């Protein structure tokens, strides 16, 4: 849905800043999602501050679950896979770097 920032959090209450809150439909969608959830006891918004405050039962739902509603995990860009190179390849790369350093020193 959108990026959010936790402005203040204590167990059972969280205030979030959501820049997209002013976009059409975002406020209504979040209100309907959280109001329908029985684990959320109250929802209040301040559109001028782009903030959403939720009171919730910390025994039934975690802050991470709440944030996942706003920022689903599929929107998160996973880091690229690591490329594992062999020791011989590392040695070749080091040799190239050393040669380039020597060339630079000779030209200066």
**Quick one: how many beta strands?**
4
List the strand order in the largest sheet.
1-2-4-3
Give Rg in angstroms.
25 Å
Q: Biggest β-sheet: count, sense, barrel?
A: 4 strands, antiparallel
Q: What's the overall geometry? A: elongated
Mean pLDDT: 79
Low-pLDDT ranges: 75-81
Q: Considering DSSP H and I runs of 4 or more, what fraction of the residues is helical?
A: 25-40%
Strand content: 15-25%
Distance between the termini: 54 Å
Described by its quaternary structure, the protein is: single chain
The count of helical stretches stands at 3
| Structural class designation | alpha+beta
State the order of secondary-structure elements, H for helix, E for strand: EEHEEHH
Summary tags:
4 strands, 108 residues, elongated, 3 helices, alpha+beta
Notes on the protein architecture:
- The structure is a single chain.
- The protein is an alpha+beta fold and 108 residues long.
- It is built from 3 helices and 4 strands, in the order E-E-H-E-E-H-H.
- Strands 1-2-4-3 form a 4-stranded antiparallel beta sheet, covered by helices on one side.
- The longest helix is centred in the last third of the chain and has 21 residues, at 87-107.
- It is elongated, with a radius of gyration of 25 Å.
- Mean pLDDT is 79; it is low at 75-81.
């Amino acid at each position: 849905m959108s990026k959010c920032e936790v402005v203040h959090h204590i167990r059972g209450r969280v205030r979030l800043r959501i820049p997209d809150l002013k976009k059409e439909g975002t406020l209504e969608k979040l209100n309907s999602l959280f109001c329908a959830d029985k684990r959320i006891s109250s929802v209040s918004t301040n559109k001028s501050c782009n903030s959403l405050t939720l009171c919730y039962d910390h025994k039934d739902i975690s802050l991470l679950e709440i944030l996942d509603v706003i920022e689903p995990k599929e929107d998160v860009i996973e880091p690229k896979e690591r490329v594992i190179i062999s020791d011989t390849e590392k040695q070749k790369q080091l040799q190239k770097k050393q040669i380039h350093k020597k060339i630079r020193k000779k030209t200066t």
